[in-house]
Design brief:
homodimer; alpha+beta; 4 helices; elongated
């Protein structure tokens, strides 16, 4: 059985967790906010709202974008965006390492139900 | 600014995070599933459903309860419940310690918006 750890930071009102991290990653890979959101099953509007929320929360925007245009504009992670994403991924990795023993102890107490996934 | 870390474990289908941990804590303190749920703003039905989900997910039930009765029954954490709660709290504490440096780095990049809380 695989245990997964989901971790969310409450940054004085703004939250940063797996969803925003994935959105940033997909924007970096695909160069488009709308496409990144679509791939995650969210609306165009929601993806933009999340990006604007992040851009406002941080001193330097995390995503640099040009809205509209012939190809619907483009987007890329800024240096700050890449840094926040890297720091977040490290927090998760460190949490998994540091908590491994206690996570294993919890796992050992689970029912032996065949994993349906 | 206070940064808070919220951490959820995906245990092969069942999730265990801040909400269930708080529910277990309140059951331990108050001896009642319904009262614990009510204090957290959830319905009687939802509180019971979460407890049953946990009891099924683990080999030994985490909460021992008697439904109904003159005083609406009582509930208490089992040894397994106390153990899971303690392990979970330790995972969170260890994650906060291990991730402190990267969390601080993220915090340092935030806008200087006065905390409204």
């Amino acid at each position: 059985m695989t245990l997964r750890l989901r971790l969310r930071l409450d940054l004085g009102g703004v939250r940063f967790g797996p969803g925003k991290a994935e959105l940033l990653e997909r924007i970096r890979e695909g160069g488009s906010i709308s496409a990144a959101g679509r791939d995650m099953g969210m609306s165009y509007k929601r993806a933009w709202m999340l990006v604007e929320e992040m851009n406002t929360a941080f001193r330097t925007p995390l995503v640099d974008s040009t809205r509209g245009g012939a190809h619907g504009g483009g987007a890329r992670l800024t240096e700050a965006g890449a840094a926040v994403l890297a720091h977040y991924r490290r927090v998760v990795a460190q949490a998994e390492r540091a908590g491994a023993q206690d996570i294993d102890a919890i796992a050992a107490m689970l029912s032996d139900i065949p994993d349906e996934k």
